[in-house]
Amino acid sequence: xxxxxxxxxxxxxxxxxxxxxxxxxxxxxxxxxxxxxxxxxxxxxxxxxxxxxxxxxxxxxxxxxxxxxxxxxxxxxxxxxxxxxxxxxxxxxxxxxxxxxxxxxxxxxxxxxxxxxxxxxxxxxxxxxxxxxxxxxxxxxxxxxxxxxxxxxxxxxxxxxxxxxxxxxxxxxxxxxxxxxxxxxxxxxxxxxxxxxxxxxxxxxxxxxxxxxxxxxxxxxxxxxxxxxxxxxxxxxxxxxxxxxxxxxxxxxxxxxxxxxxxxxxxxxxxxxxxxxxxxxxxxxxxxxxxxxxxxxxxxxxxxxxxxxxxxxxxxxxxxxxxxxxxxxxxxxxxxxxxxxxxxxxxxxxxxxxxxxxxxxxxxxxxxxxxxxxxxxxxxxxxxxxxxxxxxxxxxxxxxxxxxxxxxxxxxxxxxxxxxxxxxxxxxxxxxxxxxxxxxxxxxxxxxxxxxxxxxxxxxxxxxxxxxxxxxxxxxxxxxxxxxxxxxxxxxxxxxxxxxxx
Length: 502
What we know:
Blueprint (H helix, E strand, L loop, with lengths): L10 H10 L4 E4 L8 E10 L4 E10 L6 E9 L4 E5 L2 E5 L4 E2 L4 E8 L5 E11 L3 E10 L20 E6 L4 E6 L11 E9 L10 E2 L4 E5 L5 E5 L7 E7 L31 E2 L4 E4 L7 E7 L5 E7 L8 E6 L5 E6 L3 E8 L8 E4 L2 E2 L17 E6 L3 E8 L6 E7 L2 E7 L3 E8 L5 E6 L4 E6 L22 H16 L2 E3 L13
Parallel strand pairs: 11-18
Antiparallel strand pairs: 1-10, 2-3, 3-8, 4-7, 4-9, 5-6, 5-8, 9-10, 11-12, 12-16, 13-14, 13-15, 13-17, 17-19, 20-21, 21-24, 22-23, 22-25, 25-26, 27-28, 27-34, 28-31, 29-30, 29-32, 32-33
């Protein structure tokens, strides 16, 4: 048997022929004599060229004589050839059909051909053994035949994608082997957001620069990657370029809807893959910090800040003090608050909390600043009395003072901006002691009256032994110098540094 072999240029043509090719209707000429040929045909569609391919089969009725196909008349008038393995095709006309055998030939006709016929004049013997037969095929019942597309239209293309929200990566690939037609380009964009919660919540603000790229021409696949904030986030893979990006996402504002790849509706459902959206994170997109500053009056000033690269939302701080004292303060993103003062009565244990958690700075207790002014101690002495005065500057705390002289101790509490004095009977002791226990200080004051007390009581010499001569003059000079230095001031200063710590 002689077989006809098609030469498809692509596997698609074979698939198209298999799917669309239908057997054509066949009519066989009625033989007028014992010697005749039977002619039938089948049809298929060549999707590479858009032509119909007719395969004609010519059978020899005689089992003892070969038939020579003397004349072949096709309609439409296109070539009818026999394919020979390993050799060029030969025309059907002139082909010899073996006795009792058949031969196959191929004819290509336009796709819109409605019917075709093949008329053959065969010769078995030169004188009188011949016959003309015709076969026809009806092509109207076949499926339409058109060339296979060489590209895919932009509005009909489909895609597949991958998506890894926690890593901020995605890929998109054009389906099939055909590129997009012409200069068509399809854009896709990956965008990440700052989010107030690790689940969907608004408002959201775009973080960094969205990643956007297109598929078209010879580019059939793209990779996308975005940076993620080190806090709660949302990541979306959307259909379109950066003009589709919504910033910010608000409670009553626009949504991406089916623009997100993997959505149930168009255009997002034109890409097959996982849901192209993600919500997650392990910390809020805020940067809360606090600073404690002790004041000389015993209060603590608490500075609160919400500043830094992550600060996108207001922070509600709660400042707590001892004995149940509490105050809530809201600080907007990029701002600070220095108005919160914990009273002295509550300053022994101060904490700052956000979302019910104590900030890393922990619990702070008031300590007297080193640059607070110290109380001043002054003396006044004569032959009968020795007076000690303690003055406490304004802006500080009350100061407890213990004044001791000649075996007698007096205790006074000196209010800020006030002075307290104690007068002792002059005696033989040359020094008094002033102790400030709250400050850890102890001062010594010298009893040195201005006048010569040698003849009588007070702190002078033994009765009956007056101090005279040069010694008296020296003593008078020393006494005058001591009185001139009667006020003693202790000032210890320090620098305060401010540092915000989270």
